[in-house]
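Methods — Computational structure assignment.
A single polypeptide chain was analysed. Its primary sequence is given first, followed by the predicted tertiary structure written as structure tokens.
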Amino acid sequence: MFQRRTGLGLIAGALLAAPTPALAQTAWPTRPIRLIVPDTPGTGNDTTARLIAPLLEAALGQPWIVENRPGAGGRIGVEAAFRAAPDGTTFLLGNAGSNGINAAIYRDLPYDLLTAFDPVSLLVVGPNTLFVNPRVLPVASVAELIALVRARPGALSYASAGIGSSAHMSMELFRSRTGLDIQHVPYRGAAGLAQAVVTGEAPLAFANLVNIMPQARAGEVRLLAVTSRSRDPGLPEIPTMEEAGLPGFETLAWNAILAPRGMPVAIRERLGAELAKLRGDATLAERIRNLGGTLVVSTPAELQARIAADIGQWRRLAQAANIQAQ
């Protein structure tokens, strides 16, 4: 009997000493963390990643390594994150293109973008903007642009960051609402798009506001409207597309942190709690505002709703306009 009690006591002691799964999860992270960005260095999404990475590193005590994996409209980076182990060492900085539009234009994705990742939090939301080269297109409003293009059907071209990019889809939505005849010229990424408009090769475009702000501040392009429902706080003089005569016109650029499907809830909640603290970082908010975005750290449910709404909108447009990734 004495020996049995001793054995049970030893077992009980061992069980008490062993960390429970919940306690073990609170020790996260114990290794460096990859943040995959499915975009090129220097873009708005990359800038967001490089602003938050050192803050998360300081808060969590492990390096956050930004890993750029551009290509195929973000598909390459998303697939790398999709195939990563859900062990808390890899996250994805997804965006409106890679995790929204791609669901509408690709027919062969090896995952469902609605369910392939566990949402953690939105980070930055901002409008797209319609802009022109003022030396080639001397217009000061959306109405003037529409009138000019209608007077020259098929004669003008617009730049995009590639087929299925938010720049392309925003312009296709604009064309579907106005019936304008404009030729599409895809370029390599946001930098190629901006350069094309600045040089006049393709003198108008939509782009994420954050990606065209330097050229706008330099006077190289003229912003005609933003695509959010309300005016951008950093550019209160620029009207919305709705104010320009297109009711309900809205396309939003956003980025967010997502986890490979199946990551322990405790890890996602810990990261979400640290991200929520960023709401009070006035310096971070100001830097993002100067880039043309708004810091909007969210709940996982809010991020999932944003993804679902985007996929629905872009699928309807892609089907109507017969847009497919090539």
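Note: Residues 127-226 form a domain with the D-Maltodextrin-Binding Protein; domain 2 fold (CATH 3.40.190.10).
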